[in-house]
Amino acid sequence: MSDRTVIAGIGTTAFGNLPGRTPISLNIEAIRNALADAGVEKDGIDALFVKAPTSTSEKMYAHKLAEAMALQPTICGVWDAAGAGNIAMIRMADLAIRAGDCDIAVVSFADNPRSGSRASYERERGGGGVFGWYGVPPAYAMLAQRHMGEYATRAEDLGAIAVACRKHGAANPAAQLRKPLMLDEYMDSELVVSPFRRHDCALISDGGAAVVLMSERSAKSRGVRCAVPILGLGQSHGAWDVSLRADLTTSSAVASAERAFQMAGLTPKDIDVAQIYDCFTITALITLEDYGFCKKGGGGNFVSDGGIEIGGRLPMNTAGGLLSETGMPGMQLVLEGVRQMRGEAVTQVAGAKTCIVSNQGGIMQSHATMILGQAI
């Protein structure tokens, strides 16, 4: 790429229970903060990419947001890849910027399932209600059970992921859940759906987050402070539901990461810090394997000795992830990756020059990967 796309600004709202706030208002707040961070005026936006709320059914949602912002962008739309949607939209923005179709793009997501409706998280899945399959946890629990059966993965291994994310979230003043978790406390807690305990499951959160993207050339001409270059991007969408898959212990993260690493000219050994989608602990474990940080079936050993904590071989989810910072899917991981590459994170990884970020959607049906470089 002769002129890389950079993340020039990031913005967020508070996370947690925010009664009275609509997704539109949360999006606007996050975008306003991202524009201020980039030093860009609203009227400079000529592309608006939005992930529709999970908690409601919306049509023309990006256009509704543009109208609320009194904005008439050249490019405007929604990309639905569930939790993989944010990085997928960043990829769309990257292509549009490098094609010359837009100059400044905003990618945003906000939702209010905690204070509003969480019906989409609780509904019957795949006609399996007669067997008790309601909500999201049972599907991921099946993936975890298979991984445990095939590779002797232990509950303690899943617990190590929860402990690390909660440790990092406890140090983050903006996190929704700022309470450390000990492994014995995890092991003594009740099961929600075997093998998951409550600590294995993401938070349900209101909130919003947004990023401002432009070319590296444009960022330099505008005097943008600490623009973070996008080194690699990848996507892969396996699409098949759980009951149709031949293998429950791997995902489309393999192909997504392969493309991102190829684009960046890097390998897993070159990555200093990771923000890995952790809607459930098993999701993070499988993704670490699929990304090549350890062999398939080796995820338990990789996470169980503190290797994903600050100071470990691959510090992960340094702001707390979905298990501690906020359950709003995906964009918060992008923002923490940017903070790490700027050297501005609360739990900063010393000397970090590269960061990989994963987004995952559905029941590991959809995946998007981004690799960030040190701020310029």
Q: Would you write up a description of this structure?
A:
The chain is of the alpha/beta class. It has a domain of 130 residues: Peroxisomal Thiolase, Chain A, domain 1 (3-Layer(aba) Sandwich), CATH 3.40.47. The chain is 34% helix and 18% strand. The protein is globular, with a radius of gyration of 19 Å. The chain starts with a strand and ends with a strand.
Q: Secondary-structure blueprint of this entry?
A:
Layout: E1 5-12, H1 23-38, E2 47-51, H2 61-68, E3 75-78, H3 85-98, E4 105-111, H4 119-122, H5 137-151, H6 155-170, H7 183-188, E5 191-193, E6 196-197, E7 207-215, H8 216-222, E8 228-237, H9 253-264, E9 273-275, H10 281-290, H11 299-303, H12 321-324, H13 331-342, E10 354-361, E11 366-373
Parallel strand pairs: 2-3, 2-4, 9-10
Antiparallel strand pairs: 1-7, 1-8, 4-7, 5-6, 8-11, 10-11
Helix pairs in contact: 6-10
- CATH architecture heading of the domain at 5-116 and 205-222: 3-Layer(aba) Sandwich
Q: Tally the beta strands.
A: 11
CATH class of the domain at 5-116 and 205-222: Alpha Beta
Report how far apart the termini are: 16 Å
Neighbour order of strands in the largest sheet: 3-2-4-7-1-8-11-10-9
The overall pLDDT, averaged over residues, is 94
Order of secondary-structure elements: EHEHEHEHHHHEEEHEHEHHHHEE
The CATH superfamily of the domain at 5-116 and 205-222 appears as: Thiolase/Chalcone synthase
The helix fraction, in percent, is: 25-40%
Q: Do you know the CATH topology of the domain at 5-116 and 205-222?
A: Peroxisomal Thiolase, Chain A, domain 1
Rg measurement, Å: 19 Å
Major sheet, described briefly?
9 strands, mixed
